[in-house]
Design the sequence.
C-alpha cells in the first residue's frame, strides 16, 4: 500500500513539474513573439521619405508675447485663484491665455501668431510657472502651423528655457527649445511683454 501511494505521489509531482514547464514554455514563446515584433498587426515600420520627411532643418523665430490682464478684452484670464491668500507665489493659481505674438515689442506691430494655452504657479517658495501652450502661426508659409511648448518658467530669471515638444503642419515631429526673457512687466496690472526666441528642428 505504501509503495502504491508513494508511486502515485511521485507521478503527481512529475505531472505538476511537467505542467509548470509547459506553462513557462508557452509564456516564453508569447514574450518572444512580442519582443521580435511577430503577430503585431497594429504597428509597422514606415519609410519617412514616403511622407516627405527628408533632411531636418533648424529654424529660429523671435516673437514678442503679450500677456494682458488689464485691457477691456484681456488676453489672459485667471481661471483658478490661489487657494491661500498668504502665498507669496500665488501657488495653485492658473490662467488661460490667448496672447498675441508680434514681430516687435509694441502691441501695434505686425501680428505673427497667437500663444494659446495656460500657465499655473507651480512653486511654493519661488515664482515658477508651469507653461503649456501652442504658438499658432498666422503669417506666410507657416500660417496654420503650430509648435507646442511645455516646461518650467522661472519668471524672475533673466533667461528661461523651455522645451519644444512637438508641433503640427510644417512642424510635425518638431523638437527644440524656447528661451524667454522679460521685456516689460507691470507689477500693478500684471501685464507683461516677453521676448521668445524659439529654435526648432523640423522637416
Sequence:
Amino acid at each position: 500500500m505504501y509503495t502504491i501511494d508513494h508511486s502515485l505521489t511521485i507521478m503527481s509531482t512529475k505531472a505538476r513539474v511537467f505542467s509548470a514547464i509547459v506553462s513557462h514554455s508557452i509564456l516564453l514563446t508569447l514574450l518572444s513573439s512580442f519582443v521580435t515584433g511577430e503577430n503585431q498587426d497594429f504597428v509597422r515600420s514606415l519609410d519617412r521619405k514616403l511622407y516627405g520627411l527628408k533632411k531636418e532643418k533648424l529654424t529660429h523665430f523671435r516673437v514678442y508675447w503679450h500677456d494682458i490682464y488689464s485691457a477691456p478684452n484681456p488676453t489672459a484670464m485667471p481661471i483658478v485663484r490661489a487657494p491661500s491668500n498668504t502665498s507669496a507665489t500665488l501657488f495653485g493659481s492658473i490662467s488661460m491665455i490667448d496672447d498675441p505674438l508680434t514681430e516687435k515689442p509694441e502691441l501695434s506691430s505686425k501680428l505673427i501668431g497667437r500663444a494659446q494655452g495656460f500657465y499655473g504657479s507651480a512653486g511654493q517658495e519661488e515664482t515658477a510657472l508651469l507653461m503649456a501652450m501652442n504658438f499658432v502661426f498666422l503669417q506666410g508659409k507657416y500660417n496654420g502651423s503650430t509648435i507646442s511648448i511645455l516646461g518650467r518658467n522661472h519668471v524672475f530669471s533673466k533667461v528661461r528655457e523651455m522645451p519644444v515638444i512637438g508641433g503640427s503642419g510644417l512642424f510635425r515631429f518638431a523638437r527644440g527649445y524656447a528661451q524667454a526673457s522679460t521685456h516689460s512687466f507691470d507689477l500693478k496690472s500684471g501685464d507683461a511683454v516677453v521676448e521668445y526666441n524659439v529654435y526648432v528642428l523640423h522637416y
